[in-house]
Design a protein that fits this description.
Elements (H helix, E strand, L loop, with lengths): L2 H26 L2 H27 L14 H29 L7 H29 L2 H30 L4 H28 L6 H14 L5 E10 L2 E10 L5 H18 L3 E9 L11 H6 L1
Parallel strand pairs: 2-3
Antiparallel strand pairs: 1-2
Helix pairs in contact: 1-2, 1-4, 2-3, 2-5, 2-6, 3-5, 3-6, 4-5, 5-6, 7-8
Amino acid sequence: MQVQRYLQLSIAVALTTIALKTGAWWVSESVSLLSDALESLVNLAGAVFALAMVTIAARPPDDEHPYGHHKAEYFSSGFEGVLIFAAALGIVWAAVARLLDPQPLEAVGIGLALSVLSSALNGALAYSMLRKAREVQSMALEADARHLFTDVWTSAGVVLGLGAVLATGWLWLDPVIAIAVALNILRVGVALVAQSVRGLMDEALEPEHQAAVARVLAVASHGAVRFDHVTSRRAGPRRFIDLHMHLPADWSLGRAADERAQVELALMQAVPGLRASIQLLPLGVEVQMDDPPLAEKSAA
């Protein structure tokens, strides 16, 4: 199943859980169950936006985007984070009003049953989505999966909290639980926005992938071949690496190209989704990689 299919399923599940959780809030009038329903609305909006961004990210490279559109997935993660902020503020607003004016709860048992059912749906989908996200290295799918897991833990907290309300009769626990839910999803929102920003800033390859690259280059290096100026970045599921490969000046172009092709193949096998760009240079020739100082530019 492709990433788009998972996100389409996420939209369908979000619609189902919204109906279940809204029903849970309607029959019980619990503000903590209302907060749970509001988070499901965020899930729906996030899944719809993620589907749009994944569709854009799947477009092939073009003249304006020669490296592809993979970074579109990072906007999905950031958007979900912003939606979470808005949901958290709405939950706190409703909870504070209920805290100042406590109301008795009705049909809590039915409300809790509906909440547990919706959580089971979210949990099963989130587990499957997270496994797929790691397999295809999709940040949009991972963000949506982690948001669903947050929804599951939120619902679990609400269920336990309302159980405490039933056991103690303390009505103030209901809005306090809702505020705790808001703070928890706000933490996830901050993490998603931070992850989105890091992705847009062209982070280097993950440490395990950098180690895999280093192993390949160590094997390929010998007396006649050496590598330097290795730089890398990631964009959604794609990984990019640039490096210089120094070879003896008396090698034929065909031999040099064959050597480079073997290294590129080894790198792509070691790191899934990697695009390697290797510049061939004669031994003893170095290339200026950094911008010259401003004074030198002015003099030129």
